[in-house]
Design a protein that fits this description.
single chain, two-stranded antiparallel sheet, globular, Potassium uptake protein, TrkH family, ion transport, transport, transmembrane helix, membrane
Length: about 450
């Protein structure tokens, strides 16, 4: 009997599938936005501008080179909104949703990819979790649109229905795209509604709800107010999120927004505390804010939202794990701890790796843009933090950047959205080594 040699079949990892899915949808979105029907002037949009907009929408960032409300037509805005929804839910989740709706069975390989895409702790119940994600997303976005409807219909008539739906989805998906710019006043975001308590509160709530993560919402819906039954991850996310919302808001209220009535100051402080994580809307003139406030917003942008959410950034759990590890080191403890539970050493390693990767991309991107555009480093750091953390806040330089600098921001948005570990595992593989080298000590600090 002749035995033929076995050839190992190449299989794409789930991480490579996620990246390939994002890239494919991004390219299709760019091609659609290049069509003359996508622009109000019925002109062909240059490829680099269409790709920038498509990447920003799919990566739920919000940085733009053309004002969304005044440049793009109804078709173009619809493409952008669809990309935002796909990016917020995740390409894999959307694909799995169509498979579920069509009655197709989900294979084991597909379930594994869905687990990675949703940051689920285990593969079991992943199909049920996908259904929950779709229901909770539809609920928040429709309720948000209904609450925004009176304000936008009062200002824009029937067109306000589209405005309410667009801004609700953009807020819940932490995208930061808005339609309020005009030919005479571009890139205005929500500054017109800075004193409107209903609109600013609804938008801020949608941003926070989208950034908590779907697993956290599953715990909230299952256990209600029985906090001690939540997953440890959900507890960490809720406590860290509260910490990152309250303290910056207090700083902005006391030191940044010192003029105006107490209500105006509270609304401005609250919204500017929420939006850097990672929504991209703004109700204040960001360029007019003090340098300390801008630096604080850069930190908030880099930290971002929570894993398995519509938000980007390093994630709240990464920040919390690094703080817990630091506290354990101060106390000369072997392990980091949360709520009476020990943190696995690999989580600490992953947190340090992700933080290092985001900081490297953040500084490297700013260095390239500052060199190419001859701009102050501080301004470029703000833009690259906004891009790599998929935030969308800007000091106003993005529309004036050259093609090279726009390309840098496109790369940062894409890399920031697909996630640090996804990139690392896709590039280098995720199989652990079976052998270990001899150990030797090195001085730290």
């Amino acid at each position: 009997m002749i035995q033929y040699p076995r050839y190992r079949q190449h299989r794409f990892s789930s991480f490579q599938v996620i990246i390939a899915g994002f890239a494919a949808v991004d390219l299709v979105g760019a091609l659609l936005l290049m069509l003359p029907i996508a622009a109000q002037q019925r002109c062909v949009t240059p490829f680099h501008e269409a790709l920038f907009t498509s990447t920003s929408a799919l990566c739920v960032t919000g940085l733009v080179v053309q004002d969304t409300g005044s440049y793009w037509s109804a078709f173009g805005q619809s493409v952008i909104l669809l990309l935002i929804q796909i990016g917020g839910l995740g390409v894999i989740t959307v694909g799995a949703s169509f498979a579920l709706l069509s009655g197709r069975k989900i294979s084991l390989k597909q379930r594994s990819t869905m687990q990675e895409a949703t940051a689920a702790p285990q593969m079991g119940g992943i199909v049920r979790l996908t259904g929950f994600i779709l229901r909770i997303t539809a609920l928040f976005e429709l309720v948000g649109a209904a609450l925004l409807l009176p304000t936008f219909c009062a200002d824009y008539g029937l067109r306000g229905i589209w405005y309410a739906l667009f801004h609700s989805i953009s807020a819940f998906c932490n995208a930061g795209f808005d339609l309020l710019g005009t030919e005479g006043a571009k890139f205005v975001s929500l500054t017109r509604y800075a004193g409107n308590p209903l609109l600013t509160t609804v938008i801020a709530a949608l941003i926070v709800f989208g950034g908590l993560g779907f697993l956290t919402w599953e715990d909230i819906c299952t256990y209600r107010l029985d906090f001690h039954r939540y997953r440890m991850q959900s507890k960490v996310i809720l406590v860290t999120t509260a910490f990152l919302l309250v303290l910056p808001a207090l700083y902005f209220y006391c030191f940044e927004f010192t003029a105006g009535s107490a209500r105006q100051r509270i609304l401005l402080s609250m919204f500017q505390s929420v939006t850097p994580r990672t929504a991209g809307f703004n109700t204040a003139d960001l360029a007019a804010m003090g340098s300390t406030s801008q630096a604080l917003m850069v930190v908030l942008m880099l930290l971002g939202g929570s894993p398995g959410s519509t938000a980007g950034g390093m994630k709240t759990t990464t920040f919390a794990v690094l703080l817990a590890n630091m506290w354990a080191t101060f106390r000369r403890r072997e392990d980091a701890e949360f709520f009476g539970r020990r943190i696995d050493g690999s989580a600490v390693k992953n947190a340090a790796t992700i933080a290092g990767m985001y900081l490297t991309l953040f500084f490297l991107g700013a260095f390239v843009i500052a060199t190419a555009e001859q701009l102050p480093m501080s301004v470029c750091l703000y833009e690259t933090a906004s891009a790599v953390a998929t935030v969308g806040l800007t000091l106003g330089i993005t529309p004036q950047l050259g093609v090279l600098s726009q390309g840098v921001l496109i790369a940062l948005m894409f890399l920031g959205r697909v996630g640090g570990l996804t990139l690392i595992y896709a590039a280098f593989g995720s199989s652990p080594a079976h052998s270990r080298l001899p150990q030797e000590k090195i001085a730290i600090g």
